[in-house]
Structures are given as C-alpha cells and as structure tokens.
Sequence to fold (605 residues):
Amino acid sequence: MDHISYDKTYISDILRSVKTIAVVGASAKDVRPSFFVMKYLLDKGYQIIPINPGIAGSEILGQTVYASLSDVPVAIDMVDIFRNSSAAGPIVDEALTLTPLPKVIWMQLSVRNEEAAKRAEAAGLKVVMDRCPKIEYGKLSGEWAWVGGASGAISSKKQSMHASGKMQSLGLGPGIGVKK
Amino acid sequence: MSEQEFGFDTLAIHAGAQPDPATGARATPIYQTTSFVFDNAEHAADLFALRAFGNIYTRLMNPTTAVLESKVAALEGGTAALATASGHAAQLLTFHALMNPGDEFVAVRQLYGGSINQFNHSFKSFGWNVVWADANDLSTIADAVSNKTKAIFIESIANPGGVVTDIAGIAEIAQKAGVPLIVDNTLGTPYLCRPIEHGANIVLHSLTKFMAGHGNSMGGVIVDAGNFDWGKDGKYPMLSEPNASYNGMKMYETFGNIAFAITCRVLGLRDLGPAISPTNAFNILTGMETLSLRMDRHCSNALKVAEWLQNHDAVEYVNYAGLKDSPLYDLHQKFCPKGAGAVFTFGLKGGYEAGVKCVSSVNLFSHLANVGDTRSLIIHPASTTHSQLTEEQLALAGAGPEVVRLSVGIEDVADIIADLDQALS
Fold:
C-alpha cells in the first residue's frame, strides 16, 4: 500500500467496522476542523473521545476530554490524529501500547508520517494518511455531491434514507452511521 | 470502483445522478423550491455553520443543481464544482475569491469579447486590474506577471478565432509564478479538452453553450481542480485567513482540496447571489447526457465547412485549428485531438460590407449572439459582440472588420454548406 491513493473498499471497510474513535488534537472551538469532524461523526452514530491535555476533564459536544490515549477507560477502535506529521509519531507509539490495540490509525489532511505508519502496520493496524473521515464518509454516502463534489461513485440504485429524513449511507449500507 | 474506471460517456450520463432518494425517480427531478426545512434547530445551526452537508436555500445549493455540479466535476476530473447563473457569473465569483482591490491578473487577448469587456470595465471598478498578454507568444505572459499577479486566465479554444491555447506551457508559467491557472473550457468542453490534465487549477464554463447544447438555458460553472495550495503564503486571504462571517473559520484548512469551490459558494454565491435556476440546471443536465455525440458531429461538420470555405473565391482565409495547414494544428492535436471545436472564423475579401451582407443573407444559419447550439449560428463580431472594442483590440482578438464567426450546428452538413454558398454568392 503506497498511502497515496486508497481503494474505496479499504476506506469503507474502516468506516463500517469502527465504532469508537479517539480524536487526538480535539479543539473545543466550533470553527476548527477537528470540531467539524467530531460533530459530523457523532451525528453519524460513532462514539467520539476527544483527546487534548490542555482541556482534559472538560467536555466537547458532550464528550469527556482526556489528556492522552492511555487515559481513555474504554477500548478505542480508531485513532484520528489532528496534529502535525512529526507529532503523529509519538501518538502512534502510544496507541500501540494500548490494550486492546486500536484497529485503525487515521491521520488527517496534510498529516503524513511514513515511519509511524510502518510501525502501526507491523502491529497489524490499518493506516490512512492525509485524508479526512468526514470527507470520505461524505463521498461514500453521496452527501459529498450535495456540495458539488465529485464523489467517485455512480449507481443506478435508489439512495436509502436516513432515519431522520436525511439522505445517506448508500456506500456504507444499513447499520452503521444511522443515528437512531 | 473509482470514477477513473468509468468511461466519459458513462460519467456524462450517470455521474452525480443516482435515482432520487425520496421518490425513486430515475431522471433527476427538478427541485423547484427556494428553501428546505431543517430537521431541528441543531441541524439548522450545523448547516449554517457549514458543519453538516445539506440544503438550506437555493441561492446557495439545490439538489437538482448539485447533480449538475457533481457531473461537471467528474467530467473535468476536478474535486468539486459550483454552478452559477451564467459563465460571466462564474468568472465574477472566481475572481471575487482570488482578488483584492489593487491586485492584478494576467489574461490573454484571445478571449470571448464579453470577457474582455468584463475584465476591462466592470472588474476595474472593483480594483481588479487585468494585464493583457498574447496566447500565441508565451513570453508575453511570463513578462506580464508581477508580484501583484493573483491568477492567469486563458480559454482552451478561444472565441471567436478558434485559437487552441498552449495550456501546458502556460500552466508552467503559472506554477513558476505561484498563481492558479484559470481555463475557460466553454468551447472545448471536457469531451474535447481536459485542462486539469494539462496543469489547470480552476476550470470555468459557460454551460449555456455546448455543454447544454440546445440554446435554451443559461448557466455557468466553476470547477475546482483541488491541486493548488491556497495556504502557502497568505496570498489568497479569503481562502487561507480566518473568515469573520463564519466566526473565524479558515476555508482551506477546513475544506482542503474543495476549498476553492466551497469559498466561491459560501462567500461568493452567498453574498453576490448569481444562482442558477433548478430548471436551467435540469435542462443543462439533459443536454450533457449527449455531449460526446453532439461534439463529434459538431466537429466533423465544422471541419467539412472549414475545408469548403477554404476553397471559396469570396473567402480570404479560414481560422480553424482542425485544418491541416493551420499554424495551430499541432496544438489541436496535443490538447483536443478529438476535434478542434465547432466555432471558428473566416475572413471575407469584401471586408466589413461583405460580412454584414453574409450574415443578412443566410436562411438556415441563425444570425444571433450565441455559440454551441444544435442549430448553426452566424455573427459578424465587429458589428456586434466585439463592437465595443477598438480597431486594435478587434485585430488582436481576431475579430477584424472582415471576420465572420460560425458556430457550426449538427444539421446535415450539405444543407449547412448550401446555405453558406447562397449567402456568399
């Protein structure tokens, strides 16, 4: 895997399989990309655990903030990294000390650390770099096209409806991402 | 499957256009509504703050229009697109996102006369200063770049002269200057020419022309190639700096490789307002499904008409890059090998008077100010579309007094030639 382009199934398998996502570098400011992503993923039904040592103990979007991955009391499926590329290395290393191990390391747009990716893959984790889970979810669900995005998908099947009436989830199938 | 695995015609029909989620309608429905109800107050707040994807108000987005946008983005190989009321509106929103008062952009003179007017007059009143260069001499483009330059603007196939532009050569100059290359691909269409593959960063269209193809609906589009780093030097503050109208959000940081399209939508379209109507979006979508079929016929008809004109006694010259002896034949082979388009000019030995007589004598050709219709169209630029230009500008734009412009339609080519034959005799 070159981590330049990703197969659609690789991404959809990840977004379909994970339930609990720790967001490292989570911001409480509602205009920051990490806030956008947490809000979006919460709306899709994921459990979100914000990580930010500066505001540990407070809440973002009703979710308790922890100082580090090691402090999180529940099992983490995916670590989503909103820090720069060099900071991503130690975060991955900390993730690799967790029991149970996370299934996925996800580095946000412009974040790329090849060495850390190799260590994570050697431990059996899946890695995504330089991508945003909100964008990838939007592409798979078709929502991306609502803002004029080229979604990468065509289909002659009727799109399924969200329980709330929002259109979504065709690429992900029923079950995941449905809030209610 | 990724989009790249589908052929052009499959994308032209299917990209963006899934069966309707509400009704199962197979054709894209016309969502003729101004507004969309929110699920609840939180959903409304999320939409307004851009935290959620979804519909608010048709000035900003509309499900019918979104299908058009997604389809054009796919056909051009861009990351996202924004449809507008017209091609001119697309240009306005594009430069609104890039320019501050006092900034400059370089444009080549070989442009649609309406664009020359927009740049020379309306844009100047905003303090956006055009610096003109020559598409046929790339050194003039490089020389025109200064530290105030924010973009370079060209047409893939230029109106009116049918000039094929060296997109890759100019993209290199833009890259060196650290500014985006904007390509108006109206006369090329993504079927004939894909500017992003040659280094363009933004592609614009008047969808009114060949994309819609039937002369019935106005529309424009901005395609974001997703390949420009808007954050590197603070040169594009609307994209890279905190935005006061969104509580300090930074567009490029938040939206990555669709930031340009989003900026044009949520700042440009929101505040300046030139939205396309959903009905026009639907008409254009329907036209686009047959884009390649029409363009093949347009181009083969145009070549036959150009060859016929070349041998006509009343004709001094024919400017069509598809002719083997055209100085632009090599550029045509490189950038739009499937065809040199269907809009071109020829010069009449009889000058201005002969031009006026020709456009007055046709019976099949329609004498009007449009291109890219199924019908064959004719105009005398010096007395109409380009009449605001000086004589020097006319000559530089390839619209001298002797010039007649054709947009060759998809009728039987024998009938097209017969009509010109009687008009020139």
Summary: The domain at 291-424 of chain B is CATH 3.90.1150.10 (Aspartate Aminotransferase, domain 1). The mean pLDDT of chain B is 94.
